[in-house]
Each structure stands twice: as C-alpha cells, then as structure tokens.
Amino acid sequence: MKVAKFGGSSVASAEQIKKVAAIITDDPAKKFIVVSAPGKRNKDDFKITDKLIEIANRHCQGEPYGHLTETIMMRFSEILDQLNLSSAIAEELHQTLEEALGSNEYDSPKVDIVKSLGEVFSAKVLSAYLTSIGLNATYTNPETAGIIVSDEPGNARVLEESFANLYALRKNSGIQIIPGFFGYTKAGKLVTFSRGGSDITGSIVAAGVKAELYENFTDVDSVFTVNPSIVYRPKQISTITYKEMRELSYAGFSVFHDEALIPAFNVGIPVCIKNTNNPEAPGTMIVAEKEPTEQCVVGIAGDGGFCSLYVSKYLMNRELGFGRKLLQIFEDEHISFEHAPSGIDDMSVVIRQNQFTAEKERIILQRIQDELNVDTIKIHRDLAMIMVVGEGMISTIGVAQKATKAITDANVNMVMINQGSSEVSMMFGIQEVDLNRAVQSLYKAFFE
Ligand SMILES: Nc1ncnc2c1ncn2[C@@H]1O[C@H](COP(=O)(O)OP(=O)(O)O)[C@@H](O)[C@H]1O
Ligand SMILES: N[C@@H](CC(=O)OP(=O)(O)O)C(=O)O
Fold first, then answer.
1. Ligand 2 pocket mutation pick from 121, 182, 198 by most atoms within 8 angstroms of CB
2. 49 CA to middle of ligand 2, Å?
3. What is the pLDDT at residue 205?
4. Is residue 379 located within the same domain as residue 241?
5. Residue range(s) defining the domain that contains residue 43
6. Does the annotation flag 396 for ligand binding?
7. Which residues are ATP-binding (predicted)?
8. Does the N-terminal or the C-terminal CB of the chain have fewer CB atoms within 10 Å?
C-alpha cells in the first residue's frame, strides 16, 4: 500500500486534478492521498496559501481583504465548475473562512486555521471529484486521522502518538484523502507546519500506516543535481540517500521539505519524487543506503538570507564555557543558530537574517561586550550558504580542492568554509549576490 502526496502545482486547476485522478485510478495501491492547497498554474500565478495568509494578516490589522476572498472563491469556483461539481463546496469555504476570521482581534491560532483552509478545501474537492468518477474516496481530517502536533503555530512538530493513531486508518476501506500542512495539538488546537509542510504530512502518514512507498508528486521529472532555476536543464538524480537529500533540501532544494524525510526514514519507507505531468518518468528514489559511485558529489544547493556574527578573543580555546555562553545569549533572545564554525581564538554564529531585527542585534551585541569581553565583533550580512553534498566525500581526495577552485574561478570570495560534521557535506559562505554565479561554476566543475 502506498501514500501519495500531490503538491500545490498538482492541484492548481481542474486540468491538474484530472491528472491526479488518473494517477490514483491507475494504481489501486494508492490508498492514502495527501494534498496541498492549489498552487501556481504558471510562474506568474499565485498560491492560495499566500492569499489566505494575506487575508489573515489584513484582518488582524483591520485592513480590507474582500478582494482576496473573491480571488480565492473564483479559483475554487472555476475548479468546481470545470470538474462538474456542485458549487456547495465553494460556499462552505466562504462560510468557514468568515467563521475562522471571527472577531477583529489579532490571534495567532486563528491565522493557522485560515492558512489551513486551502488544503482542507483542496482535499474536499478531490474527494468529491474521485467520488463523481466512481471511486470510493473519503475526506479525512487530520484530527480524525490522529495527527497530533506540538503547539508551535506555523512551525508544528509531529508527536509520537500520531503514528499509532494513523495505523488504525488501515482498517478503513477505500481511498482516504487527507489535507496536508497541519495537525492538532492534544488540546485540539489546529496548528500548521512550516511552509511547504504538506510534504511532512505525507511522510507522517506513510510512516503511520506503514506504507511500502511514499510517492511525492510535483511538477518536475526528478530531483535535479542543482536548482533548475539556477542552471538550465541540470542532470537528474535517480537515487539519493535520506542524509544527502536532507542536507540539500535544507540548503535550497525546495522540491522536498527538509523535515519531511525523518518520519519516513525512521521506519525505512523509501520516498519517490515524481511528476504529475509525466507520471511515466521514474523519478528520484530517496533511500537509506546506495551503492558508492565514482562521482561522490550528488548535488549542489544554495540559499540566501543568512548573516553571521563573528567574535574573536585571544585564548578563547582555554576559556571554559565560552561557546555555551555565546550561544546562550542567542537562546535568551529566541534566535536559533544554523551553524557555528569555530577556530582557536574565534567563533562565528550563522543565523537566518530575518530573525536578527535591529532590536535583537542591539541587545545581543551589548550582551556580548558586557558578558564575554571579546576582542572583536563583526557582522557579515546578506550571506548565502552553498552546500556541496555527497556520501563518500569524506574519503574522496580532491573534492574540497575542486569546489574551492570552482568558486574562485567564478571570482567569488569565500567568507566561510565548513566541512559539515555530518561528513556528507561541505559548506561555503559567500555574499548572496554571488550565489548563482558560484553555483553555476560548481555545477560545471562537478557535473559537466
Ligand atoms: N534540485 C531541484 N530539483 C528539482 N526541483 C527543484 C530543485 N530545486 C528547486 N526545485 C523547484 O522545486 C519545484 C517543485 O517544488 P514545489 O514548487 O514546492 O512543488 P509542489 O507545488 O508540487 O509542492 C520545482 O518546480 C523546481 O522549480
Ligand atoms: N500550501 C502550503 C503547504 C505546501 O506544502 O504547499 P506546496 O505543496 O505547494 O509546497 C504552502 O504553500 O506552504
């Protein structure tokens, strides 16, 4: 039995939903279907989730949002109309949205309820359509399915008991359609995962029902060795390990959420990335282990939006607790760090720039001066991190040399180099403006 997740691009229009229905009809093993909210129909289009977030924000700030509700209603009405389904689902969406918005007060749990509606109604549309073509399909809410999550609005984590709850769904007959992207706390509050989180729901469901395979349907034939918006028609990856994929997803391969691997990995379920628009293509298999190949680098990813705080202090290495005290300051300010490369007398803390508001920066710099008595503090802004990833690179001669040469050939300055402790990646910090040039040069060096 398989779990299939269809992303926003796969349910963006009636035409796409018909392709999804054909894929489900063709494979009776697909018993659990997870769907995202309708996404972009072309590159200039909008995602329903973005509009819902804008509605919630405008509502909280007392700004008009009627035109956005209208836009969402039009998209759903058009889909329903073209699938010959009753418009009742669109009316229900309108009513649910108004109820979720309720009072004028800013209330973050309500934002999550509003954000989830794209997935809820996408799942309702798909189950109605599958039923209309004669399949036994039922809409299953994550609460009924037993997906229990932590109370972290917009950034939920799955709780262990979910898996046993989901296993119980196996006894139900027919095809169960589950909206992705959210779960419920033990107290019954709806909380969403981070953006792109329907991939996480798919993985949780696959782990819970002990599926033989988790298929993640999107709009590309495979995971490519590099983001296709940076390199034209890059090489495809046929097999990749969980470890490699997690590093690459984290570093910018937006095709699959980096938090979506662990649930499936923990119970040994392989994941396959496939194309709704070309289901015949074999896709990319994500597995626990693979045969070593001569080419140890499997992919190159890069992402911007980082900044780094560098401190140096003579004899830092001999000062007991220095690193802990520095990181404690970030923790006290509720800032999580991404990397913390260090030397004998210096240490950098790399964080996501959007966490580093002017106020936080002032407090952190002040505390470092007052409490740690450092010699130097420097902030590097607008950084990008590039990850060169591949199992086996730790025992392959010349990978670092090839990578640094490629970055140098692109005339890009390296602000930071870090051989990840994971042993499957090498990280380079560069200025964000240089990202595409550096990635293109690395691609050429490793894959052309
Ligand atoms: N290395 C990569 N391989 C394949 N696709 C990638 C990669 N990096 C980024 N992408 C982008 O990810 C997109 C698919 O993810 P996403 O837009 O979230 O799809 P969905 O709507 O199915 O959830 C692709 O269209 C592609 O532009
Ligand atoms: N709709 C949500 C969740 C999701 O996973 O979407 P997609 O499959 O389109 O990336 C979002 O936009 O974040």
1. 198
2. 7
3. 98
4. no
5. 2-287
6. no
7. 5-8, 218-219
8. C
The residue-averaged pLDDT of 27-44 equals 97
Inter-residue contact 111 to 61 (CB < 8 Å): no
Is there an atom of ligand 2 within 6 Å of 179 CB?
Answer: no
Is residue 421 over pLDDT 70? no
**Is 6 among the annotated ligand-binding positions?**
yes
The answer to whether 182 is a known ligand-binding residue is no
Give the Cα separation of 40 and 427 in Å (integer): 32
In a domain, 197, yes or no: yes
Closest Cα to atom 13 of ligand 1:
255
User: Does 196 sit in the ligand 2 pocket, CB within 6 Å?
Assistant: yes
| Closest C-alpha to ligand 2, atom 9 | 8
What's the CATH code of the domain at 243?
3.40.1160.10
Task: Say whether both 150 and 272 belong to one domain.
Answer: yes
- Look over the chain and give the mean of its residue pLDDT values, rounded to a whole number: 94
pLDDT at residue 347, as a whole number: 94
> Is 180 annotated in some ligand binding site?
no
In-domain check, residue 293: no
User: Which of 62-71, 160-169, 350-359 tops mean pLDDT?
Assistant: 160-169
Q: Are residues 255 and 338 in the same domain?
A: no
Is the pLDDT at 103 greater than 80, yes or no? no
Q: Which of these three, 261, 287, 313, is where a domain ends?
A: 287
118 lines ligand 2 (CB under 6 A): yes
Confirm if 35 and 180 have CB atoms less than 8 A apart.
yes
Out of 287, 310, 326, pick the residue that ends a domain.
Answer: 287
Indicate if 210 and 304 belong to the same structural domain: no
Q: Looking at residue 89, what is its pLDDT?
A: 92
Q: Is it the case that residue 307 has pLDDT exceeding 60?
A: yes
Q: What does pTM read for this prediction?
A: 0.92
CA of 3 to the centre of ligand 2 (A): 17
Is 227 close to ligand 1, i.e. is its CB under 6 Å away?
yes
Residue 407: inside a domain: yes
